[in-house]
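User: My instructor asked us to take a sequence, write out its structure as tokens, and then describe one feature of it. I'm not sure where to start. Here is the sequence I was given:
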Amino acid sequence: MRDRTLRVNSAGMAALVAAALLLMLAAGSTAGQAAPAVPVVLTVVGPSQPVPAGQDFLVTIRVSQATDLGAFEFGVDFAQGVLSTHPDWMALTPFLGSTGRSTGELRITNPPNLMDPVFGAYSYGSGSGPAGNGELATIQFHAAAPGTSEIELTQPQVTDTNANVQQVTIVAGSVTVAPSSSMRQLFLPMLLRR
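Assistant: Let's start with the prediction itself. The structure tokens for your sequence are:
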């Protein structure tokens, strides 16, 4: 009887050891993996009301869910018959340097193989980059002609302070350009002779 008890206990012990090993292997296979990266969101925020033709206006590029932000760059795509801009009209806001890191800017008017102007910025120095939400940049546009234009960021790149590329999600914006208000219609009375 004692021999049978040892066999049952041995079989039970072997099953417990096997189950424990499986649990350890399963835990070990996920312990070394990083949590899924939450993408950085870049949003184009344009004017909420139509802009009269002939006027300049600002568009803001907002970042959400940033973590240790170190650098970014993007192209800008828009309807060139409705709007115009120039890389010199793109400006960095204080968010990238808000943790005390120094910043620099990059502007390319006609990048190779692209029609869109490119703007970017980088930071350097000690310490972490900013995290969370904020305004990254502003872009001044000129409302050239009546119509509607989507404003989309192309080929975006976002990195942390160690130059690790982060996932990016883009939310495009749009603007409506209305006919210029400077062209007033003048109605004159009409006199008829009999």
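For the description part of your assignment, you could build on this observation: Residues 40-178 form a domain with the Immunoglobulin-like fold (CATH 2.60.40.680). Try explaining in your own words what that tells you about the chain.
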